[in-house]
Amino acid sequence: MLHKIFTFLSWLFLLTVAAVLCHSCANMAAPAGGAYDVDPPVVRRATPGFNSLNVSPSRIEIEFDENIKIEKPSEKVIVTPPQKNMPVIRSAGRRAIVELNDTLLPNTTYTIDFTDALADNNEANPLENFVYSFSTGDRLDTLSISGKVLTAEDLEPVTGIYVGVHSNNHDTAFTHIAFERISRTDSRGNFTVRGMAPGKYKVFALNDLNRDYKYDNPQENTAFLDSIIIPSTMPAVRQDTIFQDSLTIDTIHTVHYTRFLPDDLLLRSFLSDFQRQYLQKHERPEPHRLNLFFAAPTAKPTFFLLDPQTEGDDWYVAEQSAKNDTLMLWITDSLIYRQDSIRMKINYIRTDSLNKNYIATDTLNFNMRRTGRDPSRGEKKEEGEEEQIKFLGVNSNIQSTFELYNPIRIEFEQPVAAFDSTYVQLLTEVDSLFEAVPFRLESDSLNPRKFTLRPRWIPGGKYKLLIDSAAIASPYGLWNDKYEQSFTVKLLDQYGNLEISVSGLPEGKPAFVELLDKSDKPFRKSHVKAGRVRFQDLPPGEVYARIVIDENDDGIWTTGNYEEGRQPEEVFYYPGKFVIRAYSDHAEDWNIRSTPVREQKPLEITKNKPEEKKRRDPNLEREQQQQNQKSSSFSGMGTGGSGASSRMQ
């Protein structure tokens, strides 16, 4: 009898434990229901109060109705006038705390613009455009100006650049005095300078590298307006729409507000053509080659050898980069390049600490570490070793299908000491036979290893380029192997033509149009003549375009210079794209001023695309939350039952 009672109690205990476990597993999820928080924090009070007068606080506290956080305060929160000693900005529970570490100026309006940095702690709902102001005097200045900063060369929105103002309209204020009031651009390049007093101002943008709020470093990107700005206000009306959900409109309200002007300023940011000049490094990667790398484009330096001593300049062949910031010396004198150590005296341009250029003189050592046998020193191969023949490397831009508008470009591995062009043949197929085609051979002015062949192509023609073996030799005893490339030039019906009638140009100013690919990279250029620009033989596809007002008529975009009062050359983008079709002529009209410059660049080729904030649908989120809770409850119930069953067994 006792055994039966003990068995019954054991089973009862196990069933009770199983029931408890099942119940606990089935209720691990949060209970359903309750409103989903989609509202930003609400301000309760501030110390000192908003728009207080005659106060000079070192600590400001703003209290909200819920716990808050401040994202990237050093980047997003703007205190103006600018502070030399960075303020401490932090959150503590429901409070935002700002500790000012500068002595406050008398009779001055101070503004703390939180932009979108402040949000509630749980759901991160941002409190957009939240601004706190106070005045150390008996008047609060409330005027503001706004606009956009774009990169002058390609109209890209500039993120995080300071925009500041000066009521001192002298040209030196920007370079010697800190900004009076500042703002900072958002991801779209937009800015608003707040708390301005009535008056006349000059407006600037500055990528302030040393945080002194003035333009004292030519390596800082900057922008300036030529005109004087006078802030003002006007009454305005807007329509505010309230939605029932993401698609259904509930109410449209007419809202009267004060519009602050100007609100459409455009600043074109540029980097001055000044660049610090110095010799970055020098090297000797091969016995017969010396490399000099400079920090910026520079005039060709003067130099001579100290060891081994030599006279004249016939001991080398010079090769320069397209930007003139790299100099390569190919040593052609074998008595020199066989030396393990070379010493050179060089005179070049260097920039001092005051950003002034001067001629510097240095002595450079070029050492060469040799390992193993070196054929250039006349060392013989080992007995029984097979002779390895090394040919002079040859590269070209030829492809099996060749563009009608391209010349042939050839580049050799080493400089060319002897080039008999009669051994270079360009042949075209005529009635199954190949005939010679005349061409013009051009050597590159900077690179002694590059040559260009310019024939007159026949559309659809079949061609062959031949270079006989040993036709080209380098100073180091290398000869070319036989080179042969066959290719076909595309037919005319594989291309389209584009002619654009351009209007809105400043009268008498030269201009050129660049066609751009989908990565905003220019691939064709043509000058505007009599209001028209034409592009022949374009491959089919989508192309974009920009126009440069070429003030100095040098065929390239030229940057600005604040000291000279020179703005960067104007750039305009076609606000759409051109679709080129094969075997078609396209005629287009383009008024470069019909669309505001700030809206011209197509989004498809804009690199600095702002992250769009997703609109939250609280009803959908609540449904998803409830569905997740149901799934969790069902899963927990199954898990609990299974566990109890296994224990019972």
Task: Explain how this protein is built.
This protein is mostly beta strands. The chain has 5 domains: 72 residues; 227 residues, Immunoglobulin-like (Sandwich), CATH 2.60.40; 93 residues, Immunoglobulin-like (Sandwich); 79 residues, Sandwich (Immunoglobulin-like); 106 residues, Sandwich (Immunoglobulin-like). The protein has 5 helices and 44 strands. The strands form 13 sheets. Strands 27-36-34-30-31 form a 5-stranded mixed beta sheet, with no helix packed on it. Strand 24 and strand 25 form a beta hairpin.
β-strand percent reads 35-45%
Query: Low-confidence parts lasting 5 or more residues at pLDDT below 50?
Result: 24-33, 374-379, 633-649
Helix content: 10-25%
Q: Which fold name fills CATH's third level, the topology of the largest domain?
A: Immunoglobulin-like
The CATH first-level class of the largest domain comes to Mainly Beta
SS elements, strand count:
44
Q: How many H/I helical runs?
A: 5
Would you kindly provide a brief summary of this structure?
The chain has 649 residues and is mostly beta strands. It contains five helices and 44 strands. Strands 27-36-34-30-31 form a five-stranded mixed sheet, with no helix packed on it. Strands 38, 39, 41, 42 and 43 form a five-stranded antiparallel sheet that branches.
